[in-house]
Every structure is written in C-alpha cells, then in structure tokens.
C-alpha cells in the first residue's frame, strides 16, 4: 500500500497533518535496566496524547533491517524505502541548497591528507572544521580550470557541507554516475583513480581525472587538507512529489542538511534554519495557516543515541514533551509522534528495532495504550506496521483518501 | 498468500466452513463514548465463541484504505482485492441474475429527468421506486428496436435493479467497454454523448448513440423518468472460481444484489431470496448437508451504520447474537464471524478501520480474548492481518490445505 496505489485515491481538503519526528526515537534499556529511553523519560503530555490515540510500532524497512536516515525518512513520507533509491551525492546537494539542473552529476567529497608519496594518511584531514572547508571550496572554485578537449562545456561547483565534507557538482552533457569511488576506505593506500564502471561514465571519468590532478596541485600547500576523496556519485533525479502524489502543501521544519535535502526531494517547502526546538515549534505556529502538512524534525534524540548518552536522549525527549502542548494547541486534525528509526544509546548507532508511534485524530478507535513507550505500543491499535504505510493512515484520518471500489 | 499460492495446496474433504459476515461490522465509539457498536452490544454467544476462537483484526485492502463492498468481499473470499477488478456494470448484471455470455457488455443505468431543453434536472428521476423502474424497463424492452446497419445482430436487455437503477446488457460481436459515461455527475448540464474512448469501442458507441435517441423518444411521455444515464461499462469477465481454486462447493445466502453478484462471480451457488435474518439461517440449516462453504450475509449492520444509527447497528448485532446458537448447533468445522469492512455510525460511511474477526475451530490455539470486540481482538491470536489471507486460515483449520514442501 505504500506504492502508488493510494495516490489514485487522493481527496484534497483543508485538514492539517503534523508529523513530529524525533530522530532515532526507539531505544533499549541500559544493561541491567528495564526501561528504554522513551519509557524512562517523564512524558506526561505524550502519555495523555497516547490515551486518546492509536499507537503501534513501525518497521522502517523490514524485520532486522537497520535503516539509514534516507530510507527511514522516505518511509515516513510514504515512499517505498527499498525502491526509492537516491545517491548520496544528490542527497548532499539538496541538503546544501544547490540549485540543481537535469544535466548535473553530484558527488560527496571528504577533504583528506596524503603524504609526499601520495599515500592516504587521514581520510578526514584531521576533521577540519566547517569554516576551513568553506575556505577550501572557495579556493578550489576560484582556481580549478577545466580546459582540455575532454572537459569542454563542463561546469564545476564546489560546495561545503558540515565539518570536512563537501559536495562537487559537474554540469554538462553525456555525464554518468557509474564511476569508481576514489576513497580506498583505509589509510596506507593511495586514493583510487576515478575509473569508469560503465560506458556511460567514460566522459565523467576523464573529467574527474583531470579535475583531481588540478585539485592535488592547488591543495599542495595545505597543511592538512591536501587532497579530496570522492564517492556517492549520483545524477540528478526527479522524484514524484508529495504535492503531486498526495495533494499536500507540505512544509519541512528541520535544521540538518540531509533532512532538509530529503524534504526537498519529495517536494516540501523547507523552512529557513532555526536554532532551538522552541524556535522550530515557533516556525510551526507561524506557518500553520499556510500549509497542510508539517514535518518537524528533532535531531538530538539521535545524536545523543549515537553518542551513547542515555540520559541525554531522555532529556531531549522530555524537552519535546514540555513543548508538545504548543503543538496540540494548534489543534491539527492529525498529529503523529514518532521517530524515523531506533538509535539505542547502548548500541551507539541506528538499529533495526521498530519505532514507537502514536497517531492522534478524532477518528481514532480506542486501544488500551495508556502511555507512550515501546512496550505500551505493543498493545496499540496500529499493531506493528510498515513505516511506509503510516502516511496512508494519516491521510485517511484527515479524510484525504476516497473509497476504493464500489 | 492471497494469490494463487494456496490453490496448489488444496485437499478436498467433507469439512464445512461457515462465514457469517455482518456487513460494515467494525465501528467507532460515539463522540465522548468509549465503546464501538460491537463493544456496546450485548453478545453473550459471540463472547462465548470468542473464548474458544482465535480473534484478530482484518485489513480489507490496506492501512488507511476504505474499501467498497466489492473489494472487501473479494478479500473475504480469498481474492486479492486490488488485483481483482470488476466493472460496476458486470457486478450489477450478476446481482440481477442476468444469464451472461462472453459476447455481453453491461452498463449501469440511472433513470433521470431532463427538461425541455435536454438539460439534466434530476440525476435520479425523483428517486422513483423499484416498481416504476420495473415498468420502465419492460416498456423499453418492448419498444426499443435497433435497426440500422451499425446495430445489426445486436441484442439489448433492460433489467431493473433497486430504486431508480437498472442494468443494460448489449450482446453482439466487436463490442467494447471503453465508452464515455453519459452521466455528467451534476444537474444543469445535458447528458454527455457515449463517445468511444478507444477504437475497440467504436461500434458500441454507435449502438449506444442510436439507443439513447430511441430511449429519449420512448420516455418522452414520462413525467419523471424521461431519460437514462449510463456508466460503469464492463465486458463479461470470467473469474477463477472458488470451486476451481479451493475445491469448495460454496453457497451464498445473501439478499442484496451486489453480494449475490459477487458470490456468483467467484462461482458460488446463490440461495433464493429470503426476507429475514431468521430465514437466512433457516436456509443455512436446510442446505447444510449439500454444500461445504457457506457465505451468510447480514446487511443491516452496514445500513444502520450508513444512516448514523449507532443504536440500530447495536440492535442488529444483538439480533445476530441471539440467532448464533442455531449456527453453532450445526457444528460447522470452521465458523468465521466477521465483517467485510467497518461502517462506524459516527462516520455514516465505510471506513478504513480494521474489522474484528473470530475463527472458531477445534484446531484453534488459545489466545486471551474473552469477548468479541475491536479492542479485545487486538490481543487475539490472528493479530492484524490482511483480510484476503483469512480464507487460507479457514481452509487450513478445515484441513483442506496440504503441507508445502518436503
């Protein structure tokens, strides 16, 4: 049901849907403990909402599958997380607000350190800060000059991401994405050449070979970031948008490039950057009359999970709970509270565990869930369900799906 | 599993399966209430049965999808509700016991009112009663004469349905179903011409154009029903039958045309019309030795739901409960009690909510469900499952499915 099936049943109306997404929400107890981060957190407002909602556990991709943020968010937005493939370079490009065209190929770049013999000694150039990466990108943008016959009519763009990461865009004709990654994934080896892996990428391989020679020369006076590594090649790609698929007018309120990028790929408007959770909710309040779907992304549940900081993750959940009444006060027709995947602090990484979810709407059939937590959600009316089906349920509870068949 | 997979595992035996289907059974509490129609109803016999059964919640089509009666019943009978498409005209034709042939095209007809300028003023001709529609169909059957070159060797049949609705069948060669509907879906416009939408329907379009001119002339002296509107064109279509797929000898006990029609499409014998629920159960008792699958359809749960009559729906459920001992006294090997979809009285329409179900058989593994209701079924041994998989479970509990693989 996550496929294009529901797209043919769309009814437009003014009802409003809010997805409050705490990244990496699902968790595990500490060793010897009995409560997950969400269960341990004091969440009186979420618990009150859970009583009036249907609850359940969502599988982002499938049993045992640990999703990256890309597939998990596609699933949340009603896109098949396995079939909806998006190259890492494209994702990065959308995340830095790059104005894309159909003639573009993108790749993700690490600044790195090589020794005099050309052997890689640090794949992240000592984790140089974002400002350094910004300076390096400006330097390369000014000085790289593609001038051979092979590179005629090709434009190149360098854009900084966070920390030591950047994006390169090539713009031209006959470009392909089937190119070998130059990152050897370990130090002690030289970067690999950008060989073509398919005939369609022959020209791209030649351009990148010329480019890398120039980059190496231009960066040769840098103490740390004296080389780049390239991976995640991806051509421009058009996705069916949430506007076209679901008739929604969606706004993303998210502050990290990847989530802003995915939101753009599925046709959401993206709110300007904010700096705190309270500001994000302020943006929701301010924009509430102008859109009918809101994706509000909370990052720090995940980053605390990744850091192994159980108490920190609990604290972020409690902060969200404190702010929840500002969302319910807006009286959205459908309010979903969930995560994109699990990031248990004990594992310090994403995991395959299903994600607790609640859906609040006047058309909810009562279940027996009295609080918001993984164990409680097991008794919920949503049961365990594929995350990609959640959008259909949200649309149904907002009366945005018509009857199928006579 | 709803597909043809189980068909290859069929074992024939004498065991008997009964599907007691309360149309639109699933519900919601009244505003401010806490119990659905089924939960509010006093159902001691269903509750006793639930204790000995496995219970669960069935999704007719998928999360968030509100099914029409057609897809919902196909799912109940073990047919994929999305892939099994049947045109509305064909469904109507089966529902009026029309003896179909592979050369037929069917369409659904509304009697309607047009003004002197030919503009539609009432799409339902003042909702004329069935008897009027019967008279009008006889009148048209007697007087329409297709006589041009374009209509050579074409037969036409007019059959009344309920109220202002009728079915027309065209029988001949080179007929197609790709014809524009003549119902403009709103008053103030003239009926649309039956234009061909594909080359295969060119001849059909010509025939219908000639037919409509005659119908308009013949009905011109009628005070209300002076025109017809046509839609739901559908060629004859053969479905794999429950006899061939499951080795069953099935009987449908249902009194509304659509359900009788669907039952015929999947190869069931259809019991003559009865008038009360008690008579339906009488028909079950009488025919019990002669068939091994029984579909017993209760309509008024749905019609009360559609009317927004919570108490009325409760009462119908209680009436079914009172009569349930007559069914259990027959000692069927497998007894399923469920609905085809939800029709909450608060919504006055079909809805997407999953449908409570119980399956009683000596081979049921105990679960913890002590009464028959939506919330209780959440704890049941069936869990939440696709409705189309129910038939496989019923066949399995009747020992009608062999082992898969060595």
Structural write-up:
In chain A, strand 8 (250-253), helix 8 and strand 9 (269-270) form a beta-alpha-beta unit. The first copy, chain A, starts with 16 loop residues before the first strand and ends in a 9-residue tail after the last helix. The relative contact order of chain A is 0.26. With 406 residues, chain A is α/β, with parallel strands linked by helices. Chain A has helices spanning 37-40, 44-51, 69-76, 88-95, 130-143, 202-218, 242-246, 257-265, 277-287, 300-306, 310-328, 374-377, 390-397; strands spanning 17-22, 54-59, 104-114, 120-122, 155-160, 165-171, 227-235, 250-253, 269-270, 293-298, 334-338, 355-360, 383-386. The first copy, chain A, has an eight-stranded mixed β-sheet with strand order 9-8-10-1-11-12-2-13, with helices on both faces. Chain A binds chain B through residues 1, 5-6, 9, 362-363, 365-368, 379-381, 383, 385, 389-397, 401-406, and chain B through 27-29, 31, 34, 36, 57, 61-71, 81-82, 88, 91, 232, 258, 347, 349-353, 374-375, 378-379, 383-384.
Q: What is the succession of H and E elements of chain A?
A: EHHEHHEEHEEHEHEHEHEHHEEHEH
Major sheet attributes of chain A: 8 strands, mixed
Strand tally of chain A is 13
Report the structural category of chain A: alpha/beta
Count of alpha/pi helices of chain A: 13
State Rg of chain A: 23 Å
Distance between termini of chain A? 19 Å
Mean pLDDT of chain A: 95
- Largest binding interface between chains: A-B, 30 and 36 residues
């Amino acid at each position: 049901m996550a496929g294009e099936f529901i797209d043919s049943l769309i009814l437009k109306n003014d009802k409003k849907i809010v997805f409050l997404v705490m990244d990496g929400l699902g968790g595990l107890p500490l060793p010897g403990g009995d409560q997950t981060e969400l269960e341990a957190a004091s969440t009186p407002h979420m618990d009150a909402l859970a009583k009036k909602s249907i609850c359940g556990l969502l599988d982002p991709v499938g049993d045992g599958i640990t999703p990256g943020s890309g597939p998990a968010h596609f699933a949340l937005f009603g896109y098949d997380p396995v079939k909806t493939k998006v190259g890492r370079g494209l994702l990065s490009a959308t995340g830095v607000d790059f104005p894309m065209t159909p003639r573009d190929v993108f790749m993700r770049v690490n600044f790195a350190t090589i020794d005099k013999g050309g052997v890689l000694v640090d794949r992240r150039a000592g984790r140089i800060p974002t400002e350094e990466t910004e300076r390096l990108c400006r330097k390369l943008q000014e000085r790289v000059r593609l001038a051979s016959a092979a590179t005629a009519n090709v434009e190149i763009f360098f854009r900084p991401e966070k920390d030591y990461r950047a994006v390169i865009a090539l713009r031209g004709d006959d470009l392909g994405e089937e190119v070998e990654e130059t990152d050897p994934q370990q130090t002690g080896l030289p970067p690999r050449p950008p060989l073509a892996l398919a005939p369609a990428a022959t020209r791209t391989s030649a351009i990148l070979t010329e480019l890398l020679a120039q980059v190496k020369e231009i960066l040769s006076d840098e103490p740390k970031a004296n080389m780049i590594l390239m991976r995640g090649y991806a051509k421009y790609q058009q996705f069916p948008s949430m506007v076209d698929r679901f008739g929604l007018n969606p706004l993303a309120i998210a502050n990290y490039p990847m989530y802003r990028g995915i939101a753009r790929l599925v046709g959401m408007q993206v709110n300007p950057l904010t700096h705190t959770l309270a500001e994000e909710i302020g943006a929701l309040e301010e924009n509430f009359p102008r859109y009918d779907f809101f994706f509000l992304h909370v990052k720090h549940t995940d980053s605390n999970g990744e850091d192994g900081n159980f108490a920190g993750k609990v604290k972020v959940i409690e902060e969200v709970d404190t702010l929840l009444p500002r969302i319910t006060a807006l009286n959205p027709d459908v309010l979903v509270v969930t995560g994109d995947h699990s990031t248990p602090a004990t594992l310090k990484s994403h995991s395959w565990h299903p994600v607790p979810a609640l859906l609040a709407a006047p058309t909810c059939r009562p279940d027996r869930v009295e609080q918001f937590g993984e164990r409680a959600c097991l008794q919920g009316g949503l049961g365990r369900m594929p995350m990609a089906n959640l959008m259909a349920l949200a649309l149904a509870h907002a009366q945005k799906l018509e009857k199928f068949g006579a």
